[in-house]
Specification:
This protein is mainly α. The protein has helices at 3-48, 52-60, 68-78, 82-90, 95-101, 122-130, 143-159, 163-171, 176-191.
Length: 216
């Protein structure tokens, strides 16, 4: 076998090795992502007290991962089945209009914080700050603002974690599936699984800067 053939064979072997390593990395990454999603669905089920399978079923019907907590919050507060919320959403109804449809107020999305948030929370908190609490039902929130607020509420209350820190993580560009995974790991790493930390979606807290101690 001449030198050129040996060189070609070596190059092929090297490429195969690189391809195998890349495939392994993709597999590990996919496994890691799936683990994060599973933990996210599990957390939603625990917080809203629904079976994890029900969370997955809603997802499979066309609801994005980060919108899932919104479905279950509205269903819980309106005391209706998730399918009632899902039906309106799949028609193209905004999250805010679904909220109002069930006689609820944007007050249910509010989470007290210590510092004035910047993007992507700044505008929403600005609405709450500038609007008298008695008129919070008139606040208009975009779908993205509702999703950000509801996930903030879910993650901070479920794990007993600082809302300000969740906001900081979101502002850095992290998705809520990733934030959920990191917060869960931090809480478990420091003190084991957070027993008694789940406050549940029905617990209401007073809005900072808009009447401390009063329930929204």
């Amino acid at each position: 076998m001449d030198g050129r053939r040996i060189g070609t064979l070596g190059a092929i072997v090297a490429l195969c090795g690189l391809a195998g390593a890349a495939a392994a990395q993709v597999s590990i990454g996919a496994s890691f992502d799936q683990e994060g999603l599973t933990g996210f669905y599990l957390g939603i089920g625990e917080y809203y007290q629904v079976p994890q399978r029900q969370v997955v079923v809603v997802k499979e019907k066309g609801i994005p991962d980060e919108d899932l907590p919104v479905v279950f919050l509205l269903a819980s507060r309106a005391k209706v089945a998730p399918d009632a919320v899902l039906k309106l959403r799949l028609r193209g109804t905004s999250w805010l209009d679904i909220t109002l449809h069930f006689g609820l107020s944007p007050a249910i999305f509010y989470v007290p914080v210590q510092q004035t948030p910047g993007p992507p929370y700044g505008k929403a908190y600005g609405y709450y700050k500038k609007t008298p609490k008695s008129q919070w039902k008139t606040i208009r929130l975009s779908d993205a603002e509702v999703v950000n607020l509801v996930n903030l509420k879910f993650i901070s209350e479920h794990y007993g974690y600082s809302p300000d820190e969740v906001i900081r993580m979101r502002a850095s560009g992290k998705k809520f599936v990733e934030i959920n995974r990191e917060v869960k790991a931090k809480k478990q790493g420091k003190a084991g699984p957070a027993k008694g930390k789940t406050q549940g979606p029905e617990k209401k807290t007073g809005p900072a800067g808009a009447g401390k101690g009063k329930k929204p």
